[in-house]
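hey so u asked for the seq, here:
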Amino acid sequence: ADAGSFTTVLSLASSFNEIVTNLDLSDELTFFAPPNAVFEALAQNSPKIFAALPDNPDVLRRILGAHIISGINTAARIPNGISTFTAFSGDELTIVKTDSGSITVNGVLVAQADVFAENGLIHILDGLIIPDGLDLNDLVDDDGKPEAKFLGPDPSGDLLPLGLCEGDCDSDDDCEDGLVCVQRTIDDPIPGCSGSLNTYADFCVPGNGGGGGGGGGGGDDSSVAFKIRS
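ran it, structure tokens below
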């Protein structure tokens, strides 16, 4: 990993003096850092949400602050099982560490742990931490789309077949006629539906449902001086 992998999140953070100060001056913090690829995926899959973030500074500040906790919390120091930490945003983060050493933060996988920086520690994520109760779809007009409903990880019996925007489905056979089961990752939108994106669940959507387009991501030099040690 190198500092160029995090230009987007650092550029966004540079808009908020309190986050800049925290990252610049503290030498005892842990930064759960989403790399540029996470924002590029958000820009491609949910271009309206990505474009709306800079226009909603309170939401953006909360999201970015949810990625920072105090202390040098190496993977070895994080206990096995479930533990909670208070993020810089004030949100409670649920960190789960398995016996095999895999770590998730609010359901987001730590792809690479223990990247030491000059003023703290970085754990690289494979997604964006969305604080509990925050729905990014609220930032944009949903155009009257039905809200996604999660009916459980393995619905059966009277719950089947699943209707429009209902999940979690395993195959098209779980859905009503005319609907298909769209396979998703945590950052993918739910085609034709509104509701939280912060879930790995698969949903029944119209047969012609498709993802979004667009580009984006990136970011230039940032004023935030969070430097990875060489």
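The mean pLDDT is 81. Residues 66 and 90 are 8 Å apart (CA to CA).
lmk if thats what u needed
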